[in-house]
Amino acid sequence: MDILSQEEIRDAFVNCSRSEAAELPMPPGLHEVDWSRREYLGWRDPRTAQRGFIVIPTESGPVGIVLRASDASMRSNAPSMCGWCQDVQLTHDVYLYVAKRAGQAGRNGDTVGTMLCGGFECCENVRRAPSPSIVGFDVDAVIADRIAGLAERARRFAATVVGARI
Questions:
Q1: Cross-sheet strand order for the sheet of 51-56
Q2: pLDDT at residue 101 above 90?
């Protein structure tokens, strides 16, 4: 992922107004982000725990999306898997995140949802060493496949929110 400034992050948001985007809190530690190890940038709103934000790089530029988390994590009810990193060894909660679609569809109340790691840890999860059951496989290739899969699933979600092929 390319380095993004605060202005570029705010300009990327597609499912909120320009004035709402101007008021969004920036991710904590933005100046410390290792952009080379990010398939997307995600953070929670420190003022409203159920609100989250993601910025996904696409061919047409970064796409920012405002999300709302479900009231309860899925881990407490039944085992769940993040739809993006597909980590089956999660030690943290998975939430249903819902986003308004961009444009008129969102203004009409149309939304789309996805199961995601509660704290947006996907980029770290895909880089963890695979379980011992992968013995005999090329570990670096497994990790590279995980990274590519995460990036593709994030881009597909962004395309769904935007309502176009991006």
A1: 41-44, 51-56, 63-69, 94-100, 111-117
A2: yes
3-state SS, residue 127: coil
Instruction: Provide the pLDDT for residue 125.
Output: 92
Q: Where are the beta strands (DSSP E) in the chain?
A: 41-44, 51-56, 63-69, 94-100, 111-117
C-alpha distances in angstroms, 89 versus 40, 60, 94, 99, 136?
21, 33, 12, 26, 20
Distance, CA of 102 to CA of 108 (rounded, Å) = 10
Look at residue 19 and give its three-state secondary structure: helix
Beta strands in 10-139 (DSSP E): 41-44, 51-56, 63-69, 94-100, 111-117
Q: What is the pLDDT confidence band of residue 150, given thresholds at 50, 70 and 90?
A: very high
Integer Rg of the chain from CA: 16
Tokens 């199961």, residue located: 115
Residue 56 to residue 78: CA distance in whole angstroms:
29
